[in-house]
UniProtKB/TrEMBL annotation, chain A:
GO terms for molecular function: electron transfer activity; heme binding; metal ion binding. Keywords: Heme, Iron, Metal-binding, Signal. The gene is ccoO. InterPro entries: Cyt_c-like_dom (IPR009056), Cyt_c-like_dom_sf (IPR036909), Cyt_c_oxidase_monohaem-su/FixO (IPR003468). It comes from Candidatus Nitrotoga fabula. Residues 1-33 form the signal peptide. Residues 175-321 form the Cytochrome c domain. This is Cbb3-type cytochrome oxidase, cytochrome c subunit. SUPFAM superfamilies: Cytochrome c.
TrEMBL record, chain B:
It holds the Pfam family COX1. GO terms for cellular component: membrane. Its EC number is 1.9.3.1. InterPro entries: Cyt_c_oxase-like_su1_dom, Cyt_c_oxase-like_su1_sf, Cyt_C_Oxase_1. One of its GO terms (molecular function) is oxidoreductase activity. One of its GO terms (biological process) is respiratory electron transport chain. Keywords: Electron transport, Membrane, Oxidoreductase, Respiratory chain, Transmembrane, Transmembrane helix, Transport. The gene is ccoN. The chain crosses the membrane at residues 12-32, 64-89, 101-122, 137-156, 168-190, 202-225, 237-258, 270-292, 304-321, 341-363, 383-406, 426-444. This is Cbb3-type cytochrome oxidase, subunit I. Residues 1-469 form the Cytochrome oxidase subunit I profile domain.
Length: 321, 469
C-alpha cells in the first residue's frame, strides 16, 4: 500500500522541513561568510594550522602536521637584529597550510585582497613550506578606525625560509602552540574549561568575549559548553607563569588545594628534561606522605623534556592572550 | 544466535529476532554508559580517584559516556521499538529481519570501535559529533540508513489503510536523523571552520535531540499507553498538532545553544522565540497521553510498563518548562554553562526519554519472547532505583547550577564556586551509581525472563497475565 492518502502530508512535511533548514542553515551562512577576520582570528588560524581535531595526517592526535610560532629577533636572511622582535608562524615543508591560505575567501573582504596582493599568500606551497607574519595596514580600517591586520607570506616577500627562521631561534623562542591545541582537544580540556567568555558577564574575571571575526579558519573552535573550571580564552593574560602551569598540570592540588582538575602528569612522558626516567610511583608515594603530614614539603615536580607533550600544551595555554 | 541468523534466509529467521537482539544490546549499552557516568562522577567528586593513567582521565571518558548512552542505549532502544512496533501497527512482518539483524550487528561493531578510538583521544573536537568523519560515514551507512530503510519499507508494505501516529513519528524521525546527521557533520567532510563549524556543531546537537530523541520517545508513549490500557488515543488531532509543531518549531532554535557567541543577533532572537514555541508540541503530547489514561489510572500503580511510560511523560513537563524558558536571553544569562544544563540534559535523556524507552523494551521483549516478566519485585527495584537515583542527580545538579550561576554573575572567584559545588558532586555520584546499579538488576531480570519467564499463551498480551514473583 502506497502513501496515496498521505500525498498532501508528505509534501507539507517537505515544505516545512525545507523551510526550517533554509532559515537555520542557508540564511545564517550569508552572514557568517561575510565575517572579516580580525587580528585574533589570523593569529589563531596561523598558530593552530589546518586542523586540531582528528585528521589523516595526525591519526593518533600526537600534534603532527602543525606549525610553530617563533619569536624572531634577528633577520633570518641577513642576521641583523630587528628593530622590534616579531612573531613568525613557521610551516616547515610538508605541513598543511591553514584554511585562510588555501581558501582565501575565508579571510573576509579587504583582508583577503591585502593578504593576496600585498602579502602574496597564494605563493605559499606545502612542498617548500612557508613563513607567515601578521602585519597591520592603514589601508584597511575597523569600524573604530583602527588599522586592520592581514597575512604576509614572508617566504615570498622577504625570502625567509622555514629552515632559516628555525635555525636562528633559541628553543625558548619556539612555541608549539598548534601541537598544544591538539593536546587541548585530545585531553578534553574543553569539557570543563570554556573558550568563550559570555557577552553578558565575565568581563571582569575572564576578559572580553570574542568578536565575529575571531574564529575564521579555526577548527575546532572548542568553545565548550559546561564550565567546571574557569574560562581560558584569555588565561595567558591573567597568568603567564610557565612554572605555575607546570606545577598545576602535574598535580593541580600543589598550587590550588581545592581544585577538582585531574592530574596531567602522564603528559610528561617517561623522561624528564635531563633524560632521567621519571619515577611516578615514588613521586605519588612521597606526595601522599606529604599530605599525611609525614613530609614537610611536597616532592619536586620534574622539569619536562623539550619534546614532551606537556611543553606543547603549556605553550598553547600561555599563548591564550 | 545472532551470528547463526546473520547468514540464514530471511524467511527462516523468527519474527522479532532483530528487535530482541536490539533490546538486549540496548540494556547492555545502558549498563556500560551509566557505568562510565558513575565513574566520571566519582572523578569529579574525588579528583584523585584513579589518577595518572591517560585512559582513565576524565577528558578521555566523558564523551564516551555521552555517546554510549545516546547511540548505544537510547538509539538502540529506539531501534528495538521500531522493529517491534512498526510491523505490529501495520499488521505485517518487519520488511527484513535479516537487514535488522545485520543492522544490530554492525551497529554494535561500529559503536564499539568508535568509542574505543574516542577513548584513546581520537576526536573531531566537536561536542555530540565527536566522531571523526570516517566514523560519521560508518554511522550513517551501518546505523541510521539501514534502520530507516527497514522502517519505511515496513510502513509501505503495511496491511492497514491508515498509518497510526507512532508510525508517522518513526518514519519522519528516521528520515530527519539521516539528514541531520549528514548535514550536521558537513564541517568535518568539507573542513568548514570558525563560527560556521561551531554553529553547525550545535545545529546538529539540537536537532539530534529535537528531531530524533524527543519525537521517537514520544511515539513510544503513543503506542504503549493505548495498547496496554486498552483506551483509544484521546485525540488524533492533538497528535497532528504535536507532530507538525515538532517539525516546524523544534527544528529551528539551534542557535539558542550559542547565545553568548558572536552569532548574528537576528538568528539568536529568532532561535529564542522558536525555542519558547517548543511548549506547543510538549503540551500537546503530555495532555494527549495523560487524557488517554482516563479511567485506567489504577494501571499506573499496577502495571510496570504503564508506570514507566507515565513517569516519562510527567517528566516531560519540567523538561519542557525548563527547555522553553532557560534559553531566553534573560534566563540563559544566569544558567548558561552551569551544572543546571547538565541537570537539564539528564532530565531529557535519563528522565523523560529513558523511562519511555525502558517501557518499550520491557513491553517489547516480553511480547516478542512470549514470556511474562520474571520478577515484578526486581522490576520495581529497577524502577525505584532509577527514579530515585535520577532525582538525586537532577536535584543536586540543579542546585549546583544555581550556585554556579550566582557565582558567575556576581563574579565570585572560581575556586569558591568549586568548593561550594563539592557536596553536590558527591550527591551526583551517589545518584548516578544508583542508576548504574538499577541497570544491572534490569539486565538480570530480562535475562531471567528469557530463560525462566512463564510462557504467554498465543493471542494474549503479557500485561494480561498476573505477575508471579
Amino acid at each position: 500500500m502506497r502513501f496515496r492518502e498521505y500525498k498532501f502530508g508528505s509534501r507539507a512535511f517537505g515544505a516545512a522541513f525545507g523551510l526550517s533548514m533554509s532559515i537555520t542553515l542557508l540564511f545564517p551562512s550569508f552572514d557568517l561568510a561575510a565575517s572579516v577576520s580580525s587580528e585574533a582570528g589570523l593569529e589563531k588560524q596561523l598558530s593552530s594550522g589546518w586542523d586540531s581535531g582528528w585528521q589523516t595526517k595526525d591519526f593518533f592526535m600526537e600534534g603532527k602536521n602543525k606549525p610553530l610560532k617563533v619569536l624572531v629577533k634577528k633577520d633570518p636572511k641577513t642576521g641583523e637584529a630587528l628593530q622590534q622582535p616579531v612573531y613568525a608562524y613557521v610551516y616547515p615543508a610538508g605541513i598543511s597550510l591553514p584554511n585562510g591560505v588555501t581558501h582565501t575567501a575565508n579571510l573576509g573582504r579587504g583582508v583577503e585582497e591585502m593578504s593576496v596582493n600585498e602579502g602574496r599568500i597564494k605563493e605559499a606551497r606545502v612542498e617548500n613550506g612557508a613563513v607567515f607574519l601578521i602585519e597591520k595596514t592603514d589601508k584597511l580600517l575597523t569600524f573604530e578606525d583602527k588599522p586592520l591586520a592581514y597575512m604576509v607570506n614572508a617566504t615570498a616577500t622577504k625570502g625567509w625560509t622555514p629552515d632559516d627562521v628555525l635555525k636562528q631561534a633559541a628553543d625558548t623562542d619556539v612555541f608549539h602552540v598548534g601541537a598544544g591545541k591538539t593536546m587541548f582537544v585530545r585531553e578534553g580540556c574543553w569539557w570543563c574549561h570554556t573558550l568563550l567568555p559570555e557577552q553578558t558577564q565575565d568581563w571582569q574575571v575572564f576578559g572580553a568575549p570574542p568578536m565575529l571575526g575571531d574564529f575564521n579558519g579555526e577548527s575546532p573552535t572548542a568553545f565548550g559548553s559546561d564550565r567546571k573550571g574557569p574560562d581560558l580564552l584569555h588565561v595567558g593574560s591573567r597568568n603567564a607563569s610557565r612554572e605555575w602551569m607546570m606545577l598545576h598540570f602535574f598535580n593541580p592540588r600543589l598550587v590550588q588545594p581545592h581544585s577538582i582538575m585531574p592530574r596531567f602528569d602522564y603528559l610528561w612522558g617517561e623522561k624528564d628534561a635531563d633524560g632521567k626516567t621519571i619515577d611516578y610511583a615514588k613521586w605519588r608515594q612521597e606526595y601522599d606522605e606529604y599530605r599525611e603530614g609525614k613530609l614537610v614539603s611536597a616532592p619536586d615536580v620534574p622539569m619536562y623534556a623539550k619534546d614532551s607533550e606537556i611543553r606543547k600544551l603549556i605553550d598553547f595555554i600561555v599563548n591564550l592572550k | 544466535m545472532l551470528l547463526k541468523y546473520l547468514f540464514a534466509k530471511n524467511e527462516n529467521i523468527p519474527a522479532g529476532s532483530a528487535a530482541v537482539f536490539f533490546g538486549f544490546s540496548s540494556i547492555i549499552w545502558f549498563m556500560i554508559g551509566t557505568g562510565l557516568g558513575s565513574f566520571n562522577a566519582a572523578k569529579l567528586a574525588f579528583p584523585d580517584f584513579v589518577t595518572g593513567v591517560e585512559m582513565f582521565a576524565f577528558g578521555h571518558m566523558r564523551q564516551v559516556h555521552v555517546l554510549a548512552v545516546i547511540f548505544g542505549w537510547i538509539s538502540m532502544a529506539f531501534a528495538m521499538a521500531m522493529m517491534y512496533i512498526t510491523p505490529v501497527l501495520g499488521n505485517t512482518r518487519l520488511w527484513s529481519e535479516k537487514l535488522g539483524l545485520w543492522n544490530c550487528f554492525m551497529w554494535n561493531v561500529a559503536l564499539s570501535l568508535g568509542l574505543t578510538l574516542m577513548w584513546t583521544g581520537i576526536t573531531s573536537g566537536r561536542e555530540y559529533s565527536d566522531f571523526p568523519w570516517p566514523l560519521d560515514l560508518a554511522v550513517a551507512a551501518f546505523i541510521t540508513i539501514p534502520l530507516a530503510v527497514n522502517v519505511w519499507m515496513t510502513i509501505l508494505k503495511r496491511r492497514t489503510q491508515g498509518i497510526y501516529t507512532t508510525n508517522w513519528f518513526f518514519a519522519a524521525s528516521t528520515f530527519m536523523l539521516i539528514i541531520v546527521f549528514l548535514v550536521g557533520n558537513l564541517p568535518e567532510y568539507f573542513h568548514l571552520t570558525g563560527l560556521t563549524e561551531a554553529y553547525m556543531t550545535w545545529w546538529f546537537a539540537h536537532n539530534v535531540l529535537g528531531l530524533w530523541i524527543t519525537p521517537v520517545a514520544a511515539a513510544i508513549a503513543y503506542y504503549v499507553i493505548p495498547k496496554v490500557t486498552g483506551n483509544p488515543l484521546y485525540s488524533h488531532r492533538i497528535g497532528h498538532l504535536h507532530f507538525w509543531s515538532i517539525v516546524v518549531f523544534y527544528s529551528t532554535p539551534a542557535a539558542h545553544h550559542l547565545m553568548s557567541a558572536p552569532l548574528p543577533e537576528w538568528l539568536k532572537s529568532f532561535a529564542s522565540v522558536e525555542g519558547v514555541l517548543i511548549l506547543v508540541p510538549a503540551i500537546a503530547f503530555v495532555s494527549n497521553i495523560l487524557l488517554t489514561m482516563q479511567g485506567k489510572w489504577n494501571m499506573f500503580v499496577e502495571n510496570l510498563e504503564v508506570r514507566f511510560t507515565v513517569v516519562g511523560v510527567l517528566l516531560a513537563i519540567p523538561l519542557n518548562m525548563q527547555g522553553g524558558f532557560q534559553q531566553t536571553r534573560s534566563i540563559n544569562w544566569y544558567v548558561h554553562g552551569t551544572a543546571w544544563m547538565v541537570a537539564h540534559a539528564h532530565l531529557a535523556l535519563l528522565g523523560f526519554s529513558t523511562f519511555l524507552e525502558a517501557a518499550a523494551v520491557y513491553l517489547g521483549l516480553q511480547t516478542l519472547m512470549k514470556r511474562k516478566l520474571y520478577s515484578l519485585t526486581l522490576g520495581n527495584l529497577h524502577f525505584w532505583l532509577l527514579l530515585i537515583g535520577f532525582s538525586i542527580y537532577w536535584i543536586s545538579m540543579t542546585m549546583a547550577g544555581l550556585i554556579q550561576g550566582a557565582g558567575k554573575i556576581y563574579e565570585v572567584p572560581y575556586i569558591d564556586v568549586v568548593i561550594a559545588e563539592h557536596p553536590y558532586m558527591i550527591a551526583r555520584w551517589l545518584g548516578g551509581t544508583m542508576v548504574f546499579s538499577s541497570t544491572i538488576i534490569w539486565l538480570f531480570n530480562m535475562w531471567m525472563t528469557a530463560r525462566a519467564g512463564t510462557e504467554v499463551p498465543v493471542g494474549r498480551m503479557p500485561h494480561e497475565l498476573a505477575y508471579e514473583r
